[in-house]
Amino acid sequence: MAVVSCMLIIFLCFPFLKFVSVATAQKHVCDNGNGNYTANSTYSSNLNTLLSTLSSNTQINYGFYNFSYGQNSDIANAIGLCRGDVESERCRSCLKNSTLDIQHRCPNQKNAILWSDLCMLRYSNETIFHKMETSPGYYWWNLENVTELNQFSQVLGNLMKRLRGIAASGDSRRKYAAAENATGLNFQTIYGAVQCTPDLSQQECNQCLEGAISEIPNCCDDKVGGRVLRPSCNLRFETYRFYGTETTLDPVPEAPPPSNTTSSKESGNTTIIVIAVVVPTVVVVILLICLLLYLRRLKARKNLAVKEEQDDEDEIKIVESLHFNFDAIRVATEDFSDSKRLGQGGFGAVYWGRLPNGQIIAVKRLSRDSGQGDTEFKNEVLLVVKLQHRNLVRLLGFCLEGRERLLIYEFVPNKSLDYFIFDPAMKAQLDWEKRYKIIRGIARGLLYLHEDSQLRIIHRDLKASNILLDDEMNPKIADFGMARLVLMDQTQVNTNRIVGTYGYMAPEYAMQGQFSVKSDVYSFGVLILEIVSGQKNSGINNGENMEDLLSFAWRNWKEGKAINVVDPSLNSNSRNEMMRCLHIGLLCVQENFLDRPTMANIILMLNSHSLSLPIPAEPAFYVNSRTRSLPEMQSWEYNSRETGSSEPILKSVQESENEASITELYPR
């Protein structure tokens, strides 16, 4: 049956309607509200770079791209979203075509959006991530009328409600659902699909789709098909199948086939014959395999040095497109002058500089006498360049020239969290709304490291001085110098080299060298308690005695006096939210790592105030006795293999305003 469609555009901010050509199967909106840009401006250059990266990124295979490029007023933010049944190559092709089309149709607007059948492309100079937006939007309906309106509307409503719940429960990679109606009509079947941008929470996705579904009677009442499109979500229904099979995110391993059994009486003689024939054959095969493996291993040892050198060259080539000219960095930092120095990290000094295009950067110059410099430098580039998230400090590039090893990061202007939260004067700038935003942002960054990035990263040194704040007080996790890459299915790893910061380390890590994602959860719990209380974990004055923060928080919570833990400088308007964060912090610092929640569960706890929380067990108080003699806020490591001693080795670390350091990529 030939289907004819037409579209109606609804702008919440414009009181007029406009019809759009059906043949293009797309709609664009050029918003002049944010101003325009010129062709040779910094914003134009940032936008072109961003859109090119968006449509050429082959590392993402789940159809959702959310990237930023640039700084301050010239920053460009973009979202690309493909339908859940669109394969990666076809998705990138759709985004590439959309990029060309939207730049042609919106040649100088800083804010624009384009919808097509398979994908949506949107960019803006304002923050568009993790925000539910319903305007601008439009309707698109089929001209053919239904014959049984009441029955059709009832079945359609049930189908949309079911799909809404499935889509909203998706993870941070995809929130999409498509199906046909379960009950059906006597004469036709209804097919439907709904989708949200995956950066929305479950509650926000539900809310966005609920609003879109409520618009169906306004746009498509008595029609056999229609669409409601919004920046943050969309839906479509037809009486024909318009979607394909949803692409798979995590392949499910096939179950082994069931083994056949026979009675012992029937198989007795057969078994004897099989053993007599098979065993000698198997022995010979095993010997041949062992010989082959030995010869291959011998050959591999001979070629090891050459192979390692070639591997190093290949790995550097992967990121050679991010290479910065050393002279340009030297000029930007005024020849690494002391006036440009931000701080001193574990492997070198950090400077700030300004590029010729006006962009401000942070530069880490690795120490020339660092024995780990070259290897650690290579690992940092290979690892961090793959980490793209708004709550992680972004690596812009690197410089490798002679003995010089430089890492170039985005500059985060508002220093680190400890600069504000522990200073009696500066903490006044952090009201509860900002502190709650910081807690949620750190949680989203950790969730990305633990579950949503292509690599599973355990940070191992999460602390207040490693949380940098941008100009809008959004948190960015920094300093991956102690991070570890683990396999996606590994739950726990052991190490003989313990590195971290006193007060933030989980007990199983400090005492036994066992670390996992739950080690980072413990550190996050300490951070929550510090943010809520405005106190360092190292100690709180309690009369004539000093009491560590975990003991203080647990004692007051258990006695029903949890309000005593809250920073007195905060007003009590959000008291319930503060108490909930305190509760979550205590769940994170429980001594048994199995009792601690995952970051995914923590995100749910922070976003849903109706979700009931379990009662926390007593936190780990090992810091009171085992490490009381350690100096405040020092990083330390224990390595029995290197020293032959069970005593920890103290390594002083100076805090810096914008410190980015080195990462060990491969498990030790």
UniProtKB/TrEMBL annotation:
Residues 636-668 are annotated as: Disordered. InterPro entries: GNK2, GNK2_sf, Kinase-like_dom_sf, Prot_kinase_dom, Protein_kinase_ATP_BS, Ser-Thr/Tyr_kinase_cat_dom, Ser/Thr_kinase_AS. The chain crosses the membrane at residues 272-295. Residues 25-128, 134-242 form the Gnk2-homologous domain. It catalyses: L-threonyl-[protein] + ATP = O-phospho-L-threonyl-[protein] + ADP + H(+); L-seryl-[protein] + ATP = O-phospho-L-seryl-[protein] + ADP + H(+). Gene3D superfamilies: Gnk2 domain, C-X8-C-X2-C motif, Phosphorylase Kinase, domain 1, Transferase(Phosphotransferase) domain 1. GO terms for molecular function: ATP binding; protein serine/threonine kinase activity. Residues 1-25 form the signal peptide. It is found in: Membrane. Residues 636-646 have a biased composition (Polar residues). Keywords: ATP-binding, Glycoprotein, Kinase, Membrane, Nucleotide-binding, Phosphoprotein, Receptor, Repeat, Serine/threonine-protein kinase, Signal, Transferase, Transmembrane, Transmembrane helix. Residues 336-612 form the Protein kinase domain. CDD domains: Gnk2-like, STKc_IRAK. It is a single-pass membrane protein. ATP binds at K364. Its main location: membrane. One of its GO terms (biological process) is response to oxidative stress. SUPFAM superfamilies: Protein kinase-like (PK-like) (SSF56112). GO terms for cellular component: plasma membrane. This is Receptor-like protein kinase At4g00960 isoform X1. It comes from Vigna radiata var. radiata. The gene is LOC106771088.
